[in-house]
Amino acid sequence: MRLLNAGEVQLVDYMGSDLSVVQAARISNGAAMPEWRGAPDERLIKFLAEHQHMTPFEHATFKFYVKAPIFVVREWQRHRAFSYNELSGRYKKLKPEFFYPDMVRTQDEKNKQGSLPTDDYELGRQMRLALVDAYTTSWDRYEEMLELGVARELARAVLPVGTYTEMYVTGNFRNWVHWYNLRGAPDAQLEIQLYAQVVGDYLSEKMPLSWEALAK
């Protein structure tokens, strides 16, 4: 059994650039240009963002490979504007890889869905012990059921949401930035914030002007 506190995000494919946005916008008046024109195109991107002309930003797409705990992936998949394909526990035996936090957090009493960091060593120790116990027990039961002949699709039911899974996620630039603005915000769960920051780094590198115009 492996306890992990970091997943993985890789940009595996993308299509488009800041020029793609400009071309999509200018086709409306029959003036789509095949090359970048510098300052006028920079101003156009800013204009589109400021006036909420958003469809031109949908003409670039990005595909990511993601390895994350199930609870992070379920938060991610609430965004239905993306295309997802996830590792299936029906088709193969899952790996004994589980999440644990670097630091324990306590419930924020002023925010039902929020948490607050704490340096309480004993609380952190107790949580880690609880996670190790839960992960070890659930993995042992999982393997026992598989050895007895229980189908993978049923045996996986004992595994916790801290189990790591993998997926491909594809979406257009506009929706990626919208996702980033929500999941990278300070009030989002910390674990998905960390993934959002990595995605944001890729997007800002490939489409810096559009990123500057839309990202919050």
CATH topology group: Gyrase A, domain 2
State Rg.
21 Å
Number of helices: 8
SS-derived structural category: alpha+beta
Distance between the termini: 39 Å
Tell me the domain tally: 1
Q: Rough shape?
A: elongated
Strand percentage: 15-25%
Number of E-state strands: 8
Would you tell me the overall average pLDDT? 94
Features:
single chain, 216 residues, alpha+beta, Gyrase A, domain 2, 4-stranded antiparallel beta sheet, two-stranded parallel sheet, 8 helices, 8 strands, 44% helix, 19% strand
Q: Can you describe what's shown?
A:
With 216 residues, the protein is of the alpha+beta class. The chain has a single domain, classed as Gyrase A, domain 2 (2-Layer Sandwich). It is 44% helix and 19% strand. The protein has 8 helices and 8 strands. The protein has a 4-stranded antiparallel beta sheet. Helix 7 (190-206) packs across helix 8. The longest helix has 28 residues, at 121-148. It starts with a strand and ends with a helix. The model has no long low-confidence stretch (mean pLDDT 94).
